[in-house]
Amino acid sequence: MNFGKEDVFQTGEKFHGYVIERLLGNGGLGAVYLVRHEMLDTLYAMKILFPSVAKENGSYVKRFLREAKIATRIRHPNLVAVHDCGFDEKKGLYFLVMDYVNGGDLRQAIAFAGRFEPDRAVEVVMQVASALEAAQKLNVVHRDIKPENIMIQPDGLVKLVDLGIAKSDDIKDSLNTTTESVFGTPAYVAPEQAIDAAKVDTRADIYSLGVVLFEMIAGRPPFEGPNAPQILAQTLSDDPFPDIRDFNPEVKPLLAVLIRRMCVKEKERRISDPTALLKEFDRLGYKLTRPTSARVQYAQNVETAPTHRSVKSVLDRLPQDRKDTLSFETDDVEIQNFVGGLKRRKFVRKIAVAVFALLGVAVTAVSILLVAAKR
Fold it and tell me: Do 181 and 43 belong together in one domain?
């Protein structure tokens, strides 16, 4: 559903103790503003949900608020912290105030670099894995790991953002309990999440993180297509996850194997959790390092603070169908029908295999009895 963009604030406007400095970026559901706390004189990012969106669909409000609730439960250097959240009756909008990350997202970095050196890519992924490790301790599954949700500060510190569709055992709502619900981002979603996002565990995040690592090193995701169904068809097929060395022969064999273990389509065979993943990287000689707090710098100069609009040239370099991520949700009828049909075909195939197996056993048993009778 496309609601269009709205001009909610003017530069210099005061709102709930914050001064609006300027717009950082906006989309169909909301916008992000650079704001300054009036008393602390500190910059933050304020994320708002457009009033028209909140009125049209309560699920967007639920998602917006759950992001704030989950983020305040988890404090970690590699997670963007939420400091404030509320509803303004006069403007009719929901807002949350979070860390301002003085940098860009991983999608922009990939667009600039083309592809990462494997060691640098692993460094980014290990920091995300560390954030997921903290989330798992509170029974939180992110469910939307992708380059757009991974921010990188100039000092190299990585920040995972957007817990809007995260699954939390402490927050029971339709995003947690609706059976056979489907949402995520096709190119990064784990097979089991594409079938039923309500039942996933941290292994779904491991899969998505493996896809991100694959894309950083290969310069492209493992599965591509012009629309969500074609991408999902590859994800849900019985074909094995591709070998990254087919796209980048310089990748060391042990790292290539680890990526495939992160992205095994059968979750039972996948690396079990972020802690186990970090141990696997450690065995390969990689160490989790992050900048010390003394090196973390938050720009307080409003004029030089980066804006999403400043990367328009980067977005223009992306293929046309990659500018807007193909995301899907439960109410996408086309996706529901596609996944439902694929599940039915897989079920019928399993039944057929089981029937043929039973027939084989029966034929074998009859043959044995006939031989025994002749004797």
Answer: no
Gyration radius (Cα) of the chain, Å: 24
Please identify which of the residues 99, 144, 162, 205 carries the catalytic annotation: 144
State how beta strands 18-26 and 14-15 pair. antiparallel
Residue 126: closest CA among 181, 77, 87, 179? 77
Give the global pTM. 0.73
End-to-end CA distance of the chain: 75
Q: What does the DSSP 8-state code read for residue 197?
A: G
β-bridge partners, 184: 328
| Distance, CA of 190 to chain centre | 10
62 — phi, psi (to 5°)?
-60, -45
The verdict on residue 299 lying in a domain is yes
Containing domain of residue 35, as a range? 14-98
| Domain-located, residue 361 | yes
CA quadruple 139, 145, 148, 154: dihedral, nearest 10: 70
Task: Return the pLDDT at 208.
Answer: 96
Tokens 């599940």, residue located: 343
Asked about 201 being catalytic, the answer comes back as no
CA–CA dist 375, 372 (Å, integer) = 5
Same domain, yes or no, for 115 and 91?
no
Question: Residues 275-314: pLDDT tens digits?
Answer: 999 999 999 999 987 654 433 333 344 444 443 333 333 3
At 189, the pLDDT band (50, 70, 90 cuts) reads very high
User: Is residue 214 domain-shared with residue 362, that is, in the same domain?
Assistant: no
Domain of 53, CATH number, reads 3.30.200.20
Residue 212 buriedness (CB in 10 A; 0-12 / 13-18 / 19+): buried
Q: Are 183 and 329 in contact (CB under 8 A)?
A: yes
